[in-house]
Amino acid sequence: MGVFVINKNIWLGVSCLLLFTLGSLFGVSFGNKPAYGDTILKFIGLNSWSNSNNTGLHYTAIIALILLIPAVILVYMFFKTLELENMNGKRRIDTWECKLSILMAIISSFVLPGKIMQDRSLIEYAFGFPCNYWFVYQDNKRSFQLFDNLFNGNTGMNINILSLFVNIVIIYYVLILLSKIYTKVRTM
Questions:
Q1: What is the per-residue pLDDT for 94?
Q2: Region class of 10: left (phi > 0), else alpha (psi between -120 and 50), else beta
Q3: Quick one: which of 56, 61, 145, 182 has the most CB atoms within 10 Å?
């Protein structure tokens, strides 16, 4: 009788997929409906807001971030273990351009002001550069900054991972281009 042994990479991939799915489900809402995490917390018997009138600190957003941040770290570790493409002895994901592009894509969401879009009774704030990937839904107008909207009175949020990936790829190739231009100018 053989023992079923699963490779460490498979466990890493499954765990990051599970965390990503749970984090996304917790933070996603569609239309005028509350976030799925709000429904889950209400079903368990917990409040999803720090104040009783759906204002204050939104616990659902915090839980979604607590699940999504380790998922991103595990995805990084998963891709790092794969031999995708060696570049002078380094994997593409180990380059400073890749690390900087991930950091720039996420930090730009918190630093740059969001775009406001009115959708019926809800106000939708869109964050991300160059493509919007993080959407926060509000009942009332708030600040154009992501941090304030995350923790003050939002009714839900949506993170489009495909758009986030596109942002990272665009920034990555711009950094590669700038690096090549700098190297060429420096050697002249």
A1: 66
A2: alpha
A3: 61
